[in-house]
């Protein structure tokens, strides 16, 4: 008797290589049907920029699966209902997926498992997205970590514990045809205006594109990663984050490739381990998310509930548009809008400007990044915003306030990054490009800059707003103690 079909439910694991759920479904021996369900609203709905990335990643996945005899079915709406109805429609005997770790995702997976079991479908889940799952990494007393360094030591000692699985080669038996939306029906691409028009210059959202990014990183930036990773004006990092966010490549594959390159002397030991320690920040974010399910909406340090955030829609809009009048902040926000990505150092600077100089709630920034980043990630985005705001586990102390001018001068010393994204300041020399308000009238005229006309006056006095932020922090501490 021929075997019943199995469903593979794809989520943040849009790849064929090192995909434990797909391998298990194919190993079972029967026909296999892939399923992708787009959440249209709520906490599981992807943001605008990531929708663009998803469209191309799904197109790539669908072609790869098709070569394996696996059709990819697209549906929209409530994933629990969709997987259940697909299982019934095709008489599936099994369903496989790789686990997720945000509260709403865990709940959805649990509900799906229960509903499938009730319908006689055997549902199995795997680790396809992390080096180690949250419950595998424990403190000496068996608890969860809140501090990064001991977490990193623990995960470094454990390593991935398995080799990456090669992409399957054998075709599955023919699967029954099921009704599906087309990829176009999901309407993942923006129509008018197409604000993503520049994205394809920067990203290749395919498995091959992800692997090419890793190869390119190992070939060059990895050699000076420790130094150059902080320089937004240089190509000093891997730009793997959007690929990791939708799972075009697995962290296990990245870890193994880099560890092997270190052993082979292809990547210097210190640089290679520094890079893997950043991969471990992503793991740490998922660890925090798993043990703090409301991390995207509630401060991990409860005293921050009493923080006196300001409501300032005009300043928030200027920040989003990259029109604050502070060059490195504007360059970062415009890089984000144009490319769907922002350099990590500049993410820290722009986020700090929002929550400290403008005193605007970090959740506003988190939401904007969620909508505009191609790498929007439920663990990293929330954990990083809380880190900058000072409300997170092992966070930067609130009273350490970045000065965007000195940050710019240090990490974009010639001003090239600002020139790339804020062309109206391109004529200014390195000495004033990060603080045009200090340039002489003559220098401004020479550079064709008219403050308040061709480029805005700074919306915040950096010294005064620093003092205001420290006072707000003291007020919060007073409030939380009373
Ligand atoms: P590389 O330096 O090449 O690092 C390799 C990988 O390690 C990254 O792809 C990423 O997975 C991980 N990594 C590197 N730095 C960090 C970090 N500081 N924290 C956690 N993981 C890290 N990253 C996201 O993937 N999604 C987000 O939504 C996100 N939001 C952020 C919001 C703020 C306010 C800040 C300050 C940081 C945020 N980050 C986020 C973390 C970081 O900025 C990006 O992961 C990094 O810039 C990606 O570029 P890369 O792949 O070239 O990094």
Summary?
The protein has 482 residues and is mainly alpha-helical. It contains 21 helices and five strands.
Task: Please render the helix and strand layout as text.
Blueprint lengths: L5 E5 L9 H9 L3 E7 L9 H20 L4 E5 L2 H12 L3 E5 L4 H16 L3 E5 L21 H11 L40 H4 L4 H13 L5 H4 L12 H6 L4 H13 L5 H23 L21 H9 L5 H13 L4 H14 L4 H11 L5 H12 L14 H8 L4 H6 L8 H4 L7 H6 L15 H20 L1
Parallel strand pairs: 1-2, 1-4, 2-3, 4-5
Describe this structure in words.
With 482 residues, the protein is mainly α. 49% of the residues lie in helices and 6% in strands. It has helices at residues 20-28, 48-67, 79-90, 103-118, 148-158, 199-202, 207-219, 225-228, 241-246, 251-263, 269-291, 313-321, 327-339, 344-357, 362-372, 378-389, 404-411, 416-421, 430-433, 441-446, 462-481, and strands at residues 6-10, 32-38, 72-76, 94-98, 122-126. The chain has a five-stranded parallel beta sheet with strand order 3-2-1-4-5, sandwiched between helices. It is globular, with a radius of gyration of 24 Å. The chain starts with 5 loop residues before the first strand and ends with a helix. The structure holds flavin-adenine dinucleotide. Flavin-adenine dinucleotide binds next to helix 9, helix 11, helix 14 and helix 16. Flavin-adenine dinucleotide binds at residues 229, 237-241, 244-245, 278-279, 281-282, 285, 344, 347-348, 351, 369, 373, 375-377, 380-381, 384-385, 388.
